[in-house]
Structures are given as C-alpha cells and as structure tokens.
Amino acid sequence: NNDLLDDEIQSATVENQSLPSTPTKKTTVSTKTKAPLTFSITPTKGKNKGKVVGFQAVVTTPTKSPIKIRRSKKKTWAPEVKQEVRNYFKDNINKCVRTKNYSNLPGKIELEECIKKLHLDRSWKELKDSVRNMVASLLRAQGKMA
User: Fold this and answer.
1) pLDDT per residue over 107-120, tens digit each?
2) What is the 3-state secondary structure (H, E, C) of the chain?
3) pLDDT recorded at residue 66
4) Domain housing 86
5) Is residue 74 very low, low, confident or very high in pLDDT (cuts 50, 70, 90)?
6) Any domain includes 110
C-alpha cells in the first residue's frame, strides 16, 4: 500500500508541479489483492501566508474484498495408485493400526522418495493425508469389528 501511495503522490506532484491545494480523492485497484483502494491527499497549510507546506495521505480499503477465492477441485486417487501407496507404506500403516496412534506415519523424506519411485503427481502433504486416511479407515473398521 505504501508503494502505491508513493506512486500516487509522485504522480500528483508531477502533474501539478506541486501538491494539490484542495483535498483530492482517487480510486484505483491494488496490484496485489485486486481490491479497490481510495487515496485521500489532504494539503497541510503552513502558518506563513497559508501556503501548502505538506500533505496528509490516507489509503482506505473496503472491509470485505469483492474478490471470490476459488478452491481447487479435489483430485481423486485411482484405485491402482492407492493400492501401490498402500503396499509401499504397509509397514508404517500396520504399526499405526497395531499401536492405535499416528506416530508411525511416514516423514517428509520417505514421502518424497515414494513420490519419485511411483511417479506420483501429488505433493508430499497430499500423500501424507492419504496415508493418514488409510490408517483412520482401518482403525474405524477395527472398532466396528470389536
């Protein structure tokens, strides 16, 4: 916002060769958030002959942005890929189910190795979530059996 404000003040100075003598408002759009911004430049008059000696600039933004944030669509896992992941991490999954906690989930390095080996188009976090969900479904199934 400060960079945008500085640009606005510089353009006002270049256009008028001085700061405006009356309060000025201008609306523009933020380059980062695409939200509308309103600039208010108010001159400050000095004691000496009432000349403009400075200014006060204020940037205001709306409280709610009109921009809608779109969430990406959920990628579904192919059953074959899910089975390959299950086989790759079967020791980790079995330990989690045996101990009934998630402390044996694979770490980031193991997950990245799996992604390279199986040529997955997923992030390590997505893969970890998938493994965690596999453990959770097995623990749920165990609870229903007991």
Assistant:
1) 999 999 999 999 99
2) CHHHHHHHHHHHHHHHCCCCCCCEEEEEECCCCCCEEEEEEEEEECCCCCCEEEEEEEEECCCCCCCCCCCCCCCCCCHHHHHHHHHHCHHHHHHHHHHCCCCCCCCHHHHHHHHHHHCCCCCHHHHHHHHHHHHHHHHHHHHHHC
3) 45
4) 79-95+106-142
5) confident
6) yes
